[in-house]
Write a structure and sequence with these properties.
By secondary structure, the chain is α+β, with helices and mostly antiparallel strands. It contains nine helices and eleven strands. α1 packs across α3. The longest helix has 15 residues.
Length: 215
Amino acid sequence: MVTSVDQAAQAFLPCSLAPNCTLYHLEMRPLTEDETKAVFEKLANYVGKNLVHIINPAAANDEMDDDDAPLFRLHKDRVYLVPASMNALATSVARPNLISLGTCLGKFGRGGKFKLGIGSLDVLARWARYKVWIKPNGELPFLYGNHVVKAHLGRITEDTPEHQGVVVLSMSDVPLGFGVTARSTVDTRKLDPTGIVVFHQADVGEYLRDEETLF
């Protein structure tokens, strides 16, 4: 049984990561153990133990084929979650011509630090443990990259801790982005209207603002 991010990263590593493996030297390749650990840690900050459902969705869906389990692939410093069947089809595409593949979860920076991107929102929204709902007057500020303040807070999951990854939704349950809590649920109630509740990490407005560099 997988009980930690470290064990999950080791268990998920394909044997093809040997130095003499052809896949390892291609531009699109499986993640190394350190890369896998970094990705899993970021995801776990939002989804917790639900990480297992991302790694192995067949465990939560009897109708899903085990042979089409998702794979984590690195392509041009971006990490993609790719169904095995789609990955097989992508092998016929020349690597310089491959722009995107599956779900783009995020990217590695120059220092090797992984950052979740807006492409991961659907995955996070489905499995996130904690969520924040914002009022209609707070949607536009958030979609322009601003933090969520107390005046715009509609509601928040009970017992949400400080510095916790949360998905930000509209009051009608539409996922708008995600961020990290600045205060716990209890402390949020004591904040002034201008106090920050959630530090902005990503929002769907990036599909327009960062259209040229997103993929």
